[in-house]
Amino acid sequence: MRCPYCGGSETQVKDSRPSEDGAAIRRRRVCPDCAGRFTTFERVQLREVVVLKRSGKRVPFDRDKLQRSIDVALRKRAVEPDRIERLVSGITRQLESAGEPEVTSEAIGELVMAGLKGLDDVAYVRFASVYKNFREAKDFEDLLGTLGDGLLTVGAGTGSPPEDPEEPDAPPRRRAARP
């Protein structure tokens, strides 16, 4: 393993242990040339997966890119790192064990959305808004309607106040004009 600090080609493994989810080996390394210390992870790769992009371009699947996109969706959300790692590892395992040499970027996006929906609703909406290229507020309303649990009520966000059931003949309320 090449040293990320000085580029030295001979680094020594000081400690090896399984990662939290057991899907990788975590190795602490030290460079004898510059004494730099760093961590590497060794993971099983069942097969090479090629991603077919919307543009028709084919690129190798990149686990780190998947991790970064999920991290962006989960930014400033209180989700434990081991749950995020399990999500990324699960999606990667699904893709590698599917038996298909090529997978569409849409299929990966759907897997990520399904995983985020079970992990964090806000991250799910963030990811979906970028993935599905939302252009207007109606797109968000439609997506929030799929979350269920009564998150979106009829008339919410319309700007009109709710009607008062005790005063059926009352005139509509108006905001005071600003000076």
What is the distance, rounded to the nearest whole angstrom, between the alpha carbons of the first and last residues?
69 Å
The amount of helix comes to: 25-40%
What proportion strand? 15-25%
The gyration radius over C-alpha positions equals 24 Å
What's the total helix number?
5
List the secondary-structure elements in sequence, H or E: EEEEEHHEHHH
Q: Identify low-pLDDT runs.
A: 150-179
Summary, kept brief:
With 179 residues, the protein is α+β, with helices and mostly antiparallel strands. The protein is built from five helices and six strands, in the order E-E-E-E-E-H-H-E-H-H-H.
Indicate the topology.
Blueprint: E1 12-18, E2 24-30, E3 37-43, E4 50-52, E5 58-60, H1 63-73, H2 81-97, E6 102-104, H3 105-119, H4 121-131, H5 137-147
Parallel strand pairs: 4-6
Antiparallel strand pairs: 1-2, 2-3, 4-5
Main traits of this protein?
179 residues, alpha+beta, three-stranded antiparallel β-sheet, three-stranded mixed β-sheet, 5 helices, 6 strands, 17% strand, disordered C terminus
Q: What does this entry look like structurally?
A:
With 179 residues, this protein is an alpha+beta fold. The chain is 36% helix and 17% strand. The chain has helices spanning 63-73, 81-97, 105-119, 121-131, 137-147, and strands at residues 12-18, 24-30, 37-43, 50-52, 58-60, 102-104. The chain has a three-stranded antiparallel sheet, with no helix packed on it. A three-stranded mixed sheet has the order 5-4-6. Helix 2 runs antiparallel to helix 3 (105-119). It is elongated, with a radius of gyration of 24 Å. Mean pLDDT is 77; it is low at 150-179.
